[in-house]
Amino acid sequence: MAAKDLIPVRTTEEAKKRGRNGGLKSAEKRRKKREMAETAKLFLDLAASDKLQENLEKLGIKKSEQTNQMALIARAFMEAMNGDIKAMEFLRDTAGYNPRLKVEERMKAMEYGSLSEDGIQKVEIYIPDNNRDK
Questions:
Q1: Residue 113 or 48, more confident
Q2: Sequence-separated contacts (24+) of 126-131 with Cβ below 8 Å
Q3: Phi and psi for 133 in degrees, rounded to 5?
Q4: What are phi and psi of 130, to 5 degrees?
Q5: SS (H, E, C) the chain
Q6: What is the pLDDT of residue 15?
Q7: Predicted confidence (pLDDT) per residue in 6-53, tens digit
Q8: pLDDT score of 113
């Protein structure tokens, strides 16, 4: 939307109405996004098809763990083993081994004071004085 198309607010009531409409639209977008995430999780948790289950069995995956999510990870693993760099990075990041993220997490911990320069986690223990030692 171009700046020339914007119509200035003339009254308080108009501002309230526009604000309310904007809030309603925002809530609707958030709801749709949440529903999409729930639907994706549902599909990932479904049992894998017979063909996929055969392939997962060949990889040694237990029957109880043969879901669409496992099939996707297995496929990425096979691609990575065939030299696909993007698949390698996907698996590394999904497993939590991304070195860049590890460094960023460590820097944040040092910044907030929960980690010392030598990498030792700082712990403070508060022992109240309850006059039992006297």
A1: 48
A2: none
A3: -80, 0
A4: -110, 15
A5: CCHHHCCCCCCHHHHHHHHHHHHHHHHHHHHHHHHHHHHHHHHHHCECCHHHHHHHHHCCCCHHHCEHHHHHHHHHHHHHHCCCHHHHHHHHHHHCCCHHHHHHHHHHHHHCCCECCCCCECCCCCCCCCCCCC
A6: 84
A7: 778 788 888 888 889 889 999 999 999 999 999 999 999 999 999 999
A8: 67
19: its two tokens: 């604000």
The Cα 131–Cα 54 span in angstroms is: 68
More reliable by pLDDT, 113 or 16:
16
User: Would you list the domain boundaries of the chain?
Assistant: 12-45, 47-95, 96-126
Structure tokens at 109: 């911990």
Whose CA is closest to 122, among 132, 133, 109, 134?
109
pTM above 0.90, yes or no: no
